[in-house]
Amino acid sequence: MLLVLKFLELIRWKNLLIIVLTQYAAKVFLVGKGQGVVEAVLDEKQFLITLCTVLVAAAGYIINDYFDIKIDQVNKPEEVVIGRFIRRRHAMFAHQFLNISAAVISFTISFKVFIINVLAMTLLWVYASVFKKKPFIGNFMVAGLTGASLVVMAVYYTDNDLLINIYALFAFGITLIREIIKDIEDIRGDKKFGSTTLPIIWGIRRTKYLLFIFMFWFVTAVISMGVALQNKKLLIAFVLLGIPFFYMAYRLYFADRKKHFAQLSFWSKVVMILGILSMMFV
């Protein structure tokens, strides 16, 4: 039982639930326009799309922790699973099994979905093994892969791709901000093992300035889209989402300890969930 619980921790089951919620909310409220909730939930193709996305994400979390064992022993030793509860070779087997399963299932859905998922698998490996320790590009890749969880929906449901892609951009933006915040939070362990993340190269103060710029750009971009599309409901939703963003900016200005940045990372996830819930009103 303990092994099962630790495996669920390893694959970040809470984050996987957010992926499931995101894709089904997009299916019901953006594709189905709030109609046919039961049909959307029971739709076989949607189930397979979401299953593939979850499998790829779970495999990505495993390979990320596989390459980060030493760093995590410094930054968050109590959360280390691989090497303590699950052997390294077993973790690698699970990673490969999840990826192969996702690829096979994706191929039965559509060739485009298959290509996106295989590309995501490849990028997750490259990110974990090479770019995670590099400045900005690793953050950008993770944000792009998060947005891809909705892009894959837009690829399959082509008649409703515009709104889905707007929310994909939303997911990209909030994830990029959160990843940079996490780099500040983990600066001690990253520096010890030779990482060159933005906070290490620029320092925390300059990295915070960049985050302020990204926050301003992000809120401006999504509100501008609502105006350009003349979609009042979308505009109101994103204006309201700007409120917790300004609160985050306020907290970021005064943040100077690891626990402060951990709290900001949590608030980023809250904004993500609020964004998902806003799909119900557009």
Question: What does it look like?
Answer:
- This protein is an all-alpha fold.
- It has 14 helices and no strands.
- The chain has helices at 2-10, 13-31, 37-42, 44-67, 69-75, 88-109, 111-129, 137-156, 161-185, 187-192, 198-202, 204-228, 232-254, 258-277.
- Helix 7 packs antiparallel against helix 8 (137-156) and helix 9 (161-185) runs antiparallel to helix 14.
- The termini are far apart.
Can you describe this structure in just a few lines?
With 282 residues, the chain is mostly helical.
Form type: globular
Work out the helicity level. over 70%
Calculate Rg over CA atoms.
Answer: 19 Å
Percent strand = under 5%
The helix/strand series, from N terminus to C terminus, equals: HHHHHHHHHHHHHH
Distance between the termini: 42 Å
Q: Let me know the number of strands.
A: 0
Uncertain segments: none
Secondary-structure map with pairings?
Layout: H1 2-10, H2 13-31, H3 37-42, H4 44-67, H5 69-75, H6 88-109, H7 111-129, H8 137-156, H9 161-185, H10 187-192, H11 198-202, H12 204-228, H13 232-254, H14 258-277
Comma- or semicolon-separated keywords:
282 residues; mainly alpha; 14 helices; 0% strand; globular
